[in-house]
């Protein structure tokens, strides 16, 4: 069957480096216990161990699934999970299992960001190292000095700490402003 014939694969996100790293880590973990190769007619105990290995190797999954009782209960309550685990073990591709909602903590699902490309890194380097333009750093330094003076005055107003907030949209120069203020003024 070609890719265009498979309705389940048409909209799949391609495998990322992270997926390959996790698949390799699961295979290595299974190999440590003599289980790298898939076994026809795998037992529930085998599948529990495969599930625990997947959870062990993917930090975004709910750590409760590492426990024997929890893993066994998941297999019991989700009748498709044993066949999904067996298929993943047979193919060495665990992403479909890792994407199951039942393996994610309900309150948190961290998705690791993709690393920056060389082009993005070069653009970032240029943005942070090119000649600074404008007078914002001078105005910011004046503002900080005024805040420092107000902090030390004994006018009766009480301050809890020496801080200020810098709020602006992304890409507007907050990081660069602080780098410049630190470099030139030793803030």
Low-confidence stretches: 1-10
Find the structural class using helix and strand composition: mainly alpha
| Helix and strand pattern | HHHHHHHH
What is the terminal separation in angstroms?
Answer: 64 Å
- Our Rg estimate from Cα atoms comes to 26 Å
Based on DSSP secondary structure assignment, what is the total number of beta strands?
0
In percent terms, what proportion of residues is strand? under 5%
- Helix segment tally: 8
What do the pLDDT scores average to? Answer: 84
Report helical residue fraction.
Answer: 40-55%
How would a textbook summarize the main sheet? Answer: none
Shape: elongated
Search tags:
mainly alpha; 8 helices; 187 residues; disordered N terminus
Folded structure, characterized:
The chain is mainly alpha-helical and 187 residues long. 51% of the residues lie in helices and 0% in strands. The protein contains 8 helices and no strands. The termini are far apart. Residues 1-10 have low confidence and may be disordered.
Briefly summarize what is shown.
This protein has helices at residues 17-32, 44-57, 68-77, 81-91, 95-98, 118-129, 136-152, 174-185. With 187 residues, the chain is mostly helical.
Secondary-structure blueprint:
Elements: H1 17-32, H2 44-57, H3 68-77, H4 81-91, H5 95-98, H6 118-129, H7 136-152, H8 174-185
């Amino acid at each position: 069957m070609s890719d265009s014939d498979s309705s389940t694969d048409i909209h799949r996100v391609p495998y990322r480096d992270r997926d390959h790293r996790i698949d390799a880590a699961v295979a290595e973990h299974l190999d440590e216990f003599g289980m790298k190769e898939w076994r026809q007619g795998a037992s529930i105990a085998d599948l529990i161990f495969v599930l625990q290995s997947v959870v062990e190797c993917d930090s975004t999954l709910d750590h409760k699934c590492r426990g024997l009782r929890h893993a066994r209960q998941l297999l019991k309550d989700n009748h498709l999970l044993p066949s999904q685990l067996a298929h993943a073990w047979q193919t060495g591709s665990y992403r479909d299992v890792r994407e199951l909602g039942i393996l994610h903590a309900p309150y948190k699902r961290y998705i690791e960001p993709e690393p920056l490309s060389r082009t993005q890194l070069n653009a970032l380097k240029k943005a942070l190292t090119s000649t600074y333009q404008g007078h914002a750093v001078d105005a910011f330094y004046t503002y900080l000095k005024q805040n420092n003076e107000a902090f030390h005055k004994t006018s009766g107003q009480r301050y809890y700490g020496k801080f200020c907030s810098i709020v602006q949209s992304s890409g507007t120069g907050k990081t660069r402003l602080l780098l410049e203020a630190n470099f030139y003024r030793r803030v």
